[in-house]
Amino acid sequence: MEFCDVCFQKARPNLCETYKNTFTKITSIHFSQQNKLDRLLNKLGAAPRMVDRKWTCTLEGPARHEFLDSLWGIGISVHTLDDHLKVLTRLYKPDIRPLGTIEEVEMSGLDSWEEFDPKTRTWREVNVASRGERHFATARLGNVLRCSTIDGTSYYRMNRQDDSVQLVPMERRAAFNIICTIAEPVTVPWKADASGQKVFVNASDLGPVPDEIFSFLRRVGKKERGGQAIVFEVEDLDNVRAALACIKIGLEKSSETVEADPSCTTGGSVAIGIVEKERLDALKGIIKEMGGEVESHEDHMVVLGKRGSVKVSFTSDEKSYNEGSDLRVSVYALEAPPRFSEILLMIKKKLGLLDVPLESSVAQHWPIVNDSDLQYVVQSAISWYGSNPVLACKIISGNDKLGQIKEWNRKIKEGKIRSSLDTITLGKIIKRIEMV
Fold it and tell me: At residue 310, what are phi and psi to the nearest 5 degrees?
């Protein structure tokens, strides 16, 4: 709900439609109203549940409309996705701000630099030339540039300040908001499935999209697991059109049809075989370390402990949630160490497992699947080295991670990549491992 701040400037409602048909309580409700709300849900055959420790309920089709119509009668306020779209259309106006002249600007280094192309809504490479120890390139005034390194991506806007041209650093969110004002109108295709009930829009066709707009698309639809498409119900196509029109993107139906993502079944469930094996192995490894037993099945796994068992299944939804002994884990939670730890803590409490130090355990088991994983593993080892050098060595040497880290460290020494991490300490850890 981070993108609803503007919506709630006057007052926060009792309920917010966080995702399509899913309503979350964000402010307290008087007990008499809560009783009426509970009776309403019971009448509609809907059972509330706790999602990320917040009261949540899901209603679809006719039940959703009856639910919303009845809330006014019991004095409960709600902020729906339709309400949110009205705010977006007031904030984003589909006008075009022309760029300035082409000017030369000094760059910070010979990293990978790209400039936004308003016509194609893509990034094009910027040629950086050296003059002694200084580096220069040309770009248009007012345009957005990005610089990519092993540590991530930084954004800048090319502005004239007094008599000089400079690159002003920007946060990604601000950069993408400016991009939508200088981008030219474009039309992208959407495809239907064989039933004609699903709409598929390829996210890569949209180019850079402001976080506020993209968040709305993800709340209305669902991103294919392992794919680039965002999938919507055909009934939501008008709202999707309206949101994209704010940033001058039109939708045109393609003659092609597509098949639904085979990794996802009804309700956003993800089969065990689709979950990245390295991340699943890390989850199982720590559960066993806490004294739990894991039984794997085709579409879920069962974790057993002193207090019984928990059924763990996976979902393509952004949020994880639990209903009694059923725990539905977002596959995205397996990619973020803090969320990963929360899942383990929940399992530990439900089953009475051993109280192992999760911070160090997660760091040891964490796989290196992408650059973000590598940064996390290396930083964890560096942080532990001063107080526990043995643990620091275990963090980067387990699960075949050492080879990848040594190769990354070699490229830093050769000047091929740059890093803000303490590579001197990393070198000490690697040397200590090699001496064993």
Answer: -130, 130
What are the residue ranges spanned by the domains of the chain?
Answer: 2-79, 102-182, 186-258, 267-354, 368-435
Question: How far is it, in rounded angstroms, from Cα 243 to Cα 212?
Answer: 10
Q: Which of 2-6, 334-338, 351-355 has the weakest average pLDDT?
A: 2-6
Instruction: Give me the count of residues in the chain.
Output: 436
> What is the per-residue pLDDT for 265?
41
Which DSSP string do the residues of 69-85 spell out, in sequence order? HHHHHTT--EE-HHHHH
Q: Could you give the CA distance from residue 40 to residue 55 in angstroms, rounded to a whole number?
A: 15
Cα atoms in the 13 Å half-sphere on the side-chain side of 345: 11
What tens digit of pLDDT does each residue of 200-219 get? 999 889 999 998 999 899 88
Q: What is the DSSP annotation of 251-284?
A: EEEEEEEEPPPTTB-GGGEE-GGGS-HHHHHHHH
- Give the pLDDT mean for 273-302: 90
Q: Which helix (H) or strand (E) holds 101?
A: none
User: Does pLDDT of 249 surpass 50?
Assistant: yes
pLDDT at position 322 = 77
Q: Three-state DSSP class for 198?
A: strand
Whole-angstrom distance, CA of residue 414 vs CA of residue 406: 12
**CB contact at 8 A, 49 and 319:** no
- What is the rounded end-to-end Cα distance, in angstroms, of the chain? 50
Among candidates 305, 363, 372, which has minimal Cα distance to 335? Answer: 372
Token pair 């309580």: residue = 25
Q: Say if CB 68 and CB 80 are below 8 A apart.
A: yes
In a 3-state reduction of DSSP, which class is residue 245? Answer: helix
Average pLDDT over residues 145-172: 86
Q: Does domain 186-258 have CATH number 3.90.550?
A: no
Q: Alpha helix locations (H) across 57-125?
A: 62-73, 81-91
